[in-house]
Amino acid sequence: MSNDDVFKKLISHAKEYGFVFQSSEIYDGLSAVYDYGQFGAELKKNIKEYWWKSMVQFHENIVGIDAAIFMHPTTWKASGHVDAFNDPLIDNKDSKKRYRADVLVEDYLAKIEGKIEKEVKKAAKRFGDSFDREQFISTNPRVLGYKEKMETISKRLFGSLEKNDLSDVKALIEELEIACPISGSKNWTDVRQFNLMFSTQMGSLSEGSNQIFLRPETAQGIFANYLNVQKTGRMKVPFGIAQIGKAFRNEIVARQFIFRMREFEQMEMQFFVRPGEEMKWYDYWKEQRMKWHLSLGIPAEKYRWHDHEKLAHYANAACDIEFDFPFGFKELEGIHSRTDFDLSAHQKFSGKKLQYFDPELNESYVPYVVETSIGLDRTFLAVLSHAYNEEKLEGGAERVVLNIPPVLAPVKAAILPLLAKDGLPEKAREIMDELKYQFYCYYEEKDSIGKRYRRQDAIGTPFCITVDHDTLKDNTVTIRHRDTMKQERVQISSLIEIIGEKIKVSL
Ligand code: ATP
Fold this sequence. Notes:
Helix content is 39%, strand content 25%. The protein is α+β, with helices and mostly antiparallel strands.
């Protein structure tokens, strides 16, 4: 099955089993806006909790806040978003489709990268066990040629974007003979800048309304509150402020399901450090964040680092953690050394001092900031796409199973009476009443036990607990493990411990 097919199946599975719905579907949907259904909302909540625990609960020097989506409009002038939060867009005159000019070039680069991978695969086959990937990549003339070509193209792209030389970006697209994927034509408009912020009006028109913005990132709510938190929490540098919340971007190319949405959620943490110590903390947070991803049990080869060549206006170092989505490696999380850019800008625009007095150094300064910024929806997609598996079972049967890490699974345990009679439902309800205060459980008595197991596999429930006639005699139940399908007989009284052990947050 091609990756495209897998992705399509994943999207329809997510809909069929109540994870993700298109927003306003009854009105034919709203482009790049999605709703989370009953199990999706649980999975999302569990991801948030996993992140929050690892950031806030496990770090004494990090606290969490919840800032408003609306902020004073000058915030976005100071942060640079009014002037610089733009994407270069280009239209194809024949298909009338709009693209991000930089993404067109990046897709072209990804194709060259695909060619390199093909060479590597071919050589690996040829050389067998003695194949050394690193050596091959650094010496094979064809691969070196591809790499040089990629470097020349990306240097030119980032150079032109940096200088805002949009006509050169167009020239590059023409020179590379990039065609519109829909019309196949190379009939392009000029490239122009497009600001991604959504705006609205605050106050009624008669009182004189003000244009305000829906925040395009959660970070500014942290910066604007940094002294409030530092003073009221008596925080000492280095310290962090974490936040989970909605962000809005009027994305030009909004596709790939929940990967790129116009309304999405971010989990961000700003870590305030002494000037000059930011690179130490940048490295520290890179390591910590990768550890967090790997702690979910998703294999390391699904992740890779990508260092930014073109740094944002606020950063002196930046990299992404990319994930191998069904459509290839793409950004999942950004780690940025933001210097004192934001706090200094807010100091300037607000006229208020945002300095910190460091009692150990006996001096005041504007702290530097290292940020970790991860998309909640992209994490959801990463977890879901890795979890989705179609398995062939002994005897020719098939099952679709979501091998979601148990700690994140929407439903932790399904309580299933073998039959809907003979007192089994009553006993199962008793177990449900005991467990539901600890874990999110699901009670079901309809259909054969096999069908019920399949339904739980399809939503990723790690444990099915079956109540049968023996249960009434000896207070034991069968517990079935989702991934192995193995069943064991256990005491009802040990269920909380068995399940609890498997869903511990362990970092
Ligand atoms: P991209 O290059 O993919 O547009 P970005 O570099 O603009 O992303 P950041 O500004 O660094 O993204 O935002 C931090 C994180 O927020 C990203 O790593 C991503 O996980 C998430 N994110 C950003 N834009 C979107 C979006 N439109 N939909 C869903 N998640 C997003």
